[in-house]
Amino acid sequence: xxxxxxxxxxxxxxxxxxxxxxxxxxxxxxxxxxxxxxxxxxxxxxxxxxxxxxxxxxxxxxxxxxxxxxxxxxxxxxxxxxxxxxxxxxxxxxxxxxxxxxxxxxxxxxxxxxxxxxxxxxxxxxxxxxxxxxxxxxxxxxxxxxxxxxxxxxxxxxxxxxxxxxxxxxxxxxxxxxxxxxxxxxxxxxxxxxxxxxxxxxxxxxxxxxxxxxxxxxxxxxxxxxxxxxxxxxxxxxxxxxxxxxxxxxxxxxx
Length: 255
Ligand SMILES: NC(=O)c1ccc[n+]([C@@H]2O[C@H](COP(=O)([O-])OP(=O)(O)OC[C@H]3O[C@@H](n4cnc5c(N)ncnc54)[C@H](O)[C@@H]3O)[C@@H](O)[C@H]2O)c1
Hints:
Elements: E1 7-11, H1 16-27, E2 31-36, H2 39-51, E3 55-60, H3 66-80, E4 85-88, H4 104-114, H5 116-132, E5 135-140, H6 153-173, E6 178-185, H7 191-199, H8 201-209, H9 219-230, E7 241-244
Parallel strand pairs: 1-2, 1-4, 2-3, 4-5, 5-6, 6-7
Helix pairs in contact: 1-2, 1-9, 3-5, 4-6, 5-6, 7-8
Bound molecules: nicotinamide-adenine-dinucleotide.
Nicotinamide-adenine-dinucleotide binds next to α1.
Protein backbone atom coordinates (compact mmCIF):
# COMPACT_ATOMS: atom_id res chain seq x y z
CA UNK A 1 0.00 0.00 0.00
CA UNK A 2 2.50 2.62 -1.21
CA UNK A 3 -0.18 5.35 -1.56
CA UNK A 4 -2.14 5.07 1.70
CA UNK A 5 -3.51 8.53 2.64
CA UNK A 6 -2.29 10.02 -0.64
CA UNK A 7 -4.39 11.95 -3.13
CA UNK A 8 -3.84 11.40 -6.86
CA UNK A 9 -5.22 13.36 -9.81
CA UNK A 10 -5.13 11.68 -13.23
CA UNK A 11 -6.24 13.36 -16.46
CA UNK A 12 -7.67 11.19 -19.25
CA UNK A 13 -8.42 8.51 -16.66
CA UNK A 14 -11.64 7.40 -18.35
CA UNK A 15 -9.80 4.91 -20.57
CA UNK A 16 -6.53 3.22 -21.43
CA UNK A 17 -3.36 4.04 -19.54
CA UNK A 18 -5.01 6.66 -17.32
CA UNK A 19 -7.71 4.21 -16.21
CA UNK A 20 -5.15 1.47 -15.55
CA UNK A 21 -3.13 3.89 -13.40
CA UNK A 22 -6.24 5.05 -11.52
CA UNK A 23 -7.20 1.46 -10.65
CA UNK A 24 -3.66 0.61 -9.50
CA UNK A 25 -3.28 3.77 -7.37
CA UNK A 26 -6.61 3.03 -5.69
CA UNK A 27 -5.60 -0.60 -5.06
CA UNK A 28 -2.53 0.77 -3.24
CA UNK A 29 -4.60 2.99 -0.96
CA UNK A 30 -4.81 6.32 -2.82
CA UNK A 31 -7.87 8.51 -3.12
CA UNK A 32 -8.15 9.10 -6.85
CA UNK A 33 -9.57 12.07 -8.77
CA UNK A 34 -10.48 10.62 -12.16
CA UNK A 35 -10.60 13.51 -14.67
CA UNK A 36 -11.73 13.14 -18.26
CA UNK A 37 -13.40 15.03 -21.09
CA UNK A 38 -15.84 12.12 -21.21
CA UNK A 39 -17.62 12.19 -17.82
CA UNK A 40 -19.39 8.88 -18.47
CA UNK A 41 -16.04 7.17 -19.01
CA UNK A 42 -14.64 8.77 -15.85
CA UNK A 43 -17.66 7.52 -13.90
CA UNK A 44 -17.03 4.00 -15.22
CA UNK A 45 -13.47 4.13 -13.88
CA UNK A 46 -14.78 5.35 -10.52
CA UNK A 47 -17.27 2.48 -10.46
CA UNK A 48 -14.47 -0.04 -11.14
CA UNK A 49 -12.46 1.42 -8.27
CA UNK A 50 -15.40 1.47 -5.86
CA UNK A 51 -16.37 -2.11 -6.74
CA UNK A 52 -12.84 -3.12 -5.71
CA UNK A 53 -13.22 -1.28 -2.38
CA UNK A 54 -11.28 1.87 -3.33
CA UNK A 55 -11.98 5.60 -3.14
CA UNK A 56 -12.41 7.78 -6.23
CA UNK A 57 -14.36 10.68 -7.66
CA UNK A 58 -15.06 11.65 -11.27
CA UNK A 59 -14.33 15.14 -12.63
CA UNK A 60 -15.41 16.41 -16.04
CA UNK A 61 -12.53 18.39 -17.57
CA UNK A 62 -11.22 19.43 -20.97
CA UNK A 63 -7.50 19.95 -20.33
CA UNK A 64 -7.40 22.45 -23.20
CA UNK A 65 -9.47 24.85 -21.09
CA UNK A 66 -7.61 26.93 -18.47
CA UNK A 67 -10.81 27.44 -16.44
CA UNK A 68 -11.69 23.73 -16.50
CA UNK A 69 -8.17 22.75 -15.43
CA UNK A 70 -8.21 25.25 -12.53
CA UNK A 71 -11.60 23.86 -11.47
CA UNK A 72 -10.34 20.26 -11.74
CA UNK A 73 -7.49 20.91 -9.30
CA UNK A 74 -9.75 22.94 -6.99
CA UNK A 75 -12.35 20.14 -6.90
CA UNK A 76 -9.65 17.55 -6.13
CA UNK A 77 -8.33 19.57 -3.19
CA UNK A 78 -11.83 20.42 -1.91
CA UNK A 79 -12.86 16.74 -2.12
CA UNK A 80 -9.79 15.09 -0.61
CA UNK A 81 -7.92 17.94 1.14
CA UNK A 82 -4.60 17.64 -0.74
CA UNK A 83 -2.88 16.79 -4.01
CA UNK A 84 0.15 14.54 -3.59
CA UNK A 85 0.49 13.00 -7.06
CA UNK A 86 -0.51 14.33 -10.48
CA UNK A 87 -0.51 12.25 -13.66
CA UNK A 88 -0.98 14.45 -16.73
CA UNK A 89 -1.97 11.81 -19.24
CA UNK A 90 -4.86 13.17 -21.37
CA UNK A 91 -4.33 13.40 -25.10
CA UNK A 92 -6.86 13.48 -27.93
CA UNK A 93 -6.92 11.17 -30.96
CA UNK A 94 -4.60 12.04 -33.87
CA UNK A 95 -5.59 11.26 -37.46
CA UNK A 96 -2.44 10.30 -39.42
CA UNK A 97 -1.90 13.06 -42.00
CA UNK A 98 1.15 14.27 -43.97
CA UNK A 99 2.65 17.45 -42.53
CA UNK A 100 1.77 19.49 -45.63
CA UNK A 101 -1.88 18.39 -45.49
CA UNK A 102 -2.31 19.09 -41.77
CA UNK A 103 -4.55 22.11 -41.19
CA UNK A 104 -3.68 24.92 -38.81
CA UNK A 105 -6.87 24.10 -36.87
CA UNK A 106 -5.79 20.47 -36.34
CA UNK A 107 -2.25 21.53 -35.36
CA UNK A 108 -3.60 24.04 -32.82
CA UNK A 109 -6.15 21.58 -31.38
CA UNK A 110 -3.57 18.80 -30.90
CA UNK A 111 -1.14 21.20 -29.27
CA UNK A 112 -3.85 22.74 -27.08
CA UNK A 113 -4.68 19.33 -25.54
CA UNK A 114 -1.41 17.44 -25.70
CA UNK A 115 1.10 20.19 -24.89
CA UNK A 116 -0.75 23.20 -23.49
CA UNK A 117 -3.02 20.84 -21.48
CA UNK A 118 0.01 19.45 -19.66
CA UNK A 119 1.38 22.94 -19.04
CA UNK A 120 -2.00 24.20 -17.78
CA UNK A 121 -2.31 21.15 -15.52
CA UNK A 122 1.15 21.65 -13.99
CA UNK A 123 0.49 25.40 -13.63
CA UNK A 124 -2.60 24.59 -11.52
CA UNK A 125 -1.10 21.62 -9.63
CA UNK A 126 2.26 23.11 -8.63
CA UNK A 127 0.97 25.90 -6.30
CA UNK A 128 -0.91 23.28 -4.23
CA UNK A 129 2.20 21.08 -4.06
CA UNK A 130 4.42 24.06 -3.17
CA UNK A 131 2.13 24.89 -0.29
CA UNK A 132 2.29 21.27 0.91
CA UNK A 133 6.08 21.14 0.36
CA UNK A 134 5.65 17.75 -1.30
CA UNK A 135 4.36 16.30 -4.56
CA UNK A 136 5.12 14.30 -7.67
CA UNK A 137 4.18 14.89 -11.28
CA UNK A 138 4.28 12.27 -14.02
CA UNK A 139 3.56 13.48 -17.54
CA UNK A 140 2.87 11.12 -20.41
CA UNK A 141 4.78 11.71 -23.66
CA UNK A 142 5.45 9.09 -26.36
CA UNK A 143 8.32 7.52 -28.27
CA UNK A 144 6.97 9.72 -31.10
CA UNK A 145 8.72 12.58 -29.26
CA UNK A 146 12.14 10.98 -29.62
CA UNK A 147 12.48 10.74 -33.38
CA UNK A 148 10.59 11.79 -36.51
CA UNK A 149 6.90 10.91 -36.23
CA UNK A 150 5.75 10.41 -39.83
CA UNK A 151 2.10 11.49 -40.35
CA UNK A 152 1.84 12.69 -36.75
CA UNK A 153 3.63 16.05 -36.95
CA UNK A 154 1.54 17.98 -34.35
CA UNK A 155 1.47 14.99 -31.97
CA UNK A 156 5.23 14.30 -32.18
CA UNK A 157 6.06 17.98 -31.70
CA UNK A 158 3.62 18.30 -28.78
CA UNK A 159 5.05 15.22 -27.05
CA UNK A 160 8.62 16.51 -27.53
CA UNK A 161 7.39 19.67 -25.81
CA UNK A 162 5.97 17.60 -22.94
CA UNK A 163 9.43 16.13 -22.29
CA UNK A 164 11.02 19.58 -22.26
CA UNK A 165 8.27 21.02 -20.02
CA UNK A 166 8.82 18.16 -17.56
CA UNK A 167 12.58 18.75 -17.47
CA UNK A 168 12.02 22.45 -16.90
CA UNK A 169 9.53 21.82 -14.08
CA UNK A 170 11.92 19.31 -12.50
CA UNK A 171 14.77 21.83 -12.55
CA UNK A 172 12.63 24.66 -11.17
CA UNK A 173 11.05 22.57 -8.39
CA UNK A 174 13.87 20.24 -7.35
CA UNK A 175 14.56 21.95 -4.02
CA UNK A 176 10.87 22.40 -3.18
CA UNK A 177 10.04 18.75 -2.49
CA UNK A 178 8.40 18.28 -5.86
CA UNK A 179 9.62 15.78 -8.46
CA UNK A 180 8.56 15.79 -12.12
CA UNK A 181 9.18 12.91 -14.48
CA UNK A 182 7.88 11.83 -17.87
CA UNK A 183 7.14 8.50 -19.53
CA UNK A 184 7.49 7.76 -23.26
CA UNK A 185 5.36 4.70 -24.07
CA UNK A 186 5.70 2.66 -27.25
CA UNK A 187 2.58 1.09 -28.80
CA UNK A 188 0.10 0.22 -26.06
CA UNK A 189 -2.89 -2.05 -26.70
CA UNK A 190 -5.68 0.07 -25.26
CA UNK A 191 -9.34 -0.80 -25.91
CA UNK A 192 -9.45 1.58 -28.89
CA UNK A 193 -6.45 -0.15 -30.48
CA UNK A 194 -7.87 -3.62 -29.71
CA UNK A 195 -11.07 -2.65 -31.55
CA UNK A 196 -8.95 -1.59 -34.53
CA UNK A 197 -7.18 -4.98 -34.47
CA UNK A 198 -10.55 -6.76 -34.58
CA UNK A 199 -11.42 -4.85 -37.75
CA UNK A 200 -7.91 -5.07 -39.25
CA UNK A 201 -6.12 -8.18 -37.85
CA UNK A 202 -3.07 -7.58 -40.08
CA UNK A 203 -2.43 -4.28 -38.26
CA UNK A 204 -1.73 -6.24 -35.07
CA UNK A 205 1.27 -8.00 -36.60
CA UNK A 206 2.64 -4.79 -38.11
CA UNK A 207 2.26 -2.91 -34.84
CA UNK A 208 3.77 -5.77 -32.82
CA UNK A 209 6.75 -6.10 -35.16
CA UNK A 210 8.04 -2.56 -34.59
CA UNK A 211 8.83 -3.54 -30.98
CA UNK A 212 11.92 -5.69 -30.27
CA UNK A 213 9.68 -7.83 -28.02
CA UNK A 214 7.40 -8.38 -31.04
CA UNK A 215 4.31 -7.33 -29.11
CA UNK A 216 2.54 -4.19 -28.00
CA UNK A 217 2.51 -3.14 -24.36
CA UNK A 218 -0.45 -3.32 -22.00
CA UNK A 219 -1.88 -0.26 -20.21
CA UNK A 220 -0.94 -1.93 -16.88
CA UNK A 221 2.73 -2.00 -17.91
CA UNK A 222 2.76 1.79 -18.32
CA UNK A 223 0.68 2.21 -15.16
CA UNK A 224 3.34 0.29 -13.18
CA UNK A 225 5.95 2.79 -14.38
CA UNK A 226 3.67 5.71 -13.42
CA UNK A 227 3.26 4.32 -9.89
CA UNK A 228 7.01 3.77 -9.56
CA UNK A 229 7.82 7.37 -10.56
CA UNK A 230 5.11 8.64 -8.17
CA UNK A 231 6.23 6.49 -5.24
CA UNK A 232 8.93 7.10 -2.65
CA UNK A 233 10.93 4.31 -4.33
CA UNK A 234 11.98 6.88 -6.94
CA UNK A 235 12.81 9.61 -4.39
CA UNK A 236 16.13 10.61 -6.09
CA UNK A 237 14.71 10.62 -9.62
CA UNK A 238 13.53 13.86 -11.18
CA UNK A 239 13.53 15.23 -14.73
CA UNK A 240 13.81 11.69 -16.12
CA UNK A 241 12.17 10.41 -19.29
CA UNK A 242 11.40 6.71 -18.75
CA UNK A 243 10.95 4.91 -22.06
CA UNK A 244 8.42 2.03 -21.75
CA UNK A 245 8.47 0.65 -25.28
CA UNK A 246 9.28 -3.10 -25.40
CA UNK A 247 12.54 -2.23 -27.15
CA UNK A 248 10.98 -0.20 -29.98
CA UNK A 249 13.76 2.39 -29.91
CA UNK A 250 16.60 -0.14 -29.76
CA UNK A 251 15.28 -2.39 -32.51
CA UNK A 252 17.27 -2.31 -35.73
CA UNK A 253 15.41 -2.72 -39.04
CA UNK A 254 18.10 -5.34 -39.91
CA UNK A 255 16.86 -7.71 -37.17
N1 LIG B 1 -1.79 3.93 -26.56
C1 LIG B 1 -0.62 4.14 -27.09
O1 LIG B 1 -0.13 3.37 -27.95
C2 LIG B 1 0.23 5.32 -26.64
C3 LIG B 1 1.56 5.40 -27.07
C4 LIG B 1 2.34 6.46 -26.66
C5 LIG B 1 1.80 7.45 -25.85
N2 LIG B 1 0.50 7.37 -25.46
C6 LIG B 1 0.00 8.44 -24.62
O2 LIG B 1 -0.55 7.89 -23.45
C7 LIG B 1 -1.61 8.71 -22.96
C8 LIG B 1 -2.85 7.86 -22.77
O3 LIG B 1 -3.14 7.24 -24.01
P1 LIG B 1 -4.24 6.09 -24.16
O4 LIG B 1 -3.85 5.31 -25.36
O5 LIG B 1 -4.44 5.44 -22.85
O6 LIG B 1 -5.51 6.97 -24.56
P2 LIG B 1 -7.05 6.58 -24.68
O7 LIG B 1 -7.49 7.18 -25.98
O8 LIG B 1 -7.30 5.15 -24.41
O9 LIG B 1 -7.67 7.44 -23.48
C9 LIG B 1 -7.50 8.83 -23.47
C10 LIG B 1 -8.51 9.43 -22.52
O10 LIG B 1 -8.29 10.85 -22.53
C11 LIG B 1 -9.54 11.50 -22.63
N3 LIG B 1 -9.37 12.80 -23.26
C12 LIG B 1 -9.24 13.08 -24.59
N4 LIG B 1 -9.16 14.41 -24.77
C13 LIG B 1 -9.23 14.98 -23.54
C14 LIG B 1 -9.23 16.31 -23.08
N5 LIG B 1 -9.14 17.34 -23.94
N6 LIG B 1 -9.32 16.54 -21.75
C15 LIG B 1 -9.45 15.51 -20.87
N7 LIG B 1 -9.47 14.23 -21.25
C16 LIG B 1 -9.37 13.96 -22.58
C17 LIG B 1 -10.41 10.56 -23.47
O11 LIG B 1 -11.79 10.83 -23.25
C18 LIG B 1 -9.97 9.20 -22.97
O12 LIG B 1 -10.74 8.75 -21.87
C19 LIG B 1 -1.79 9.81 -24.01
O13 LIG B 1 -1.08 10.96 -23.60
C20 LIG B 1 -1.17 9.21 -25.24
O14 LIG B 1 -0.71 10.19 -26.15
C21 LIG B 1 -0.31 6.33 -25.83
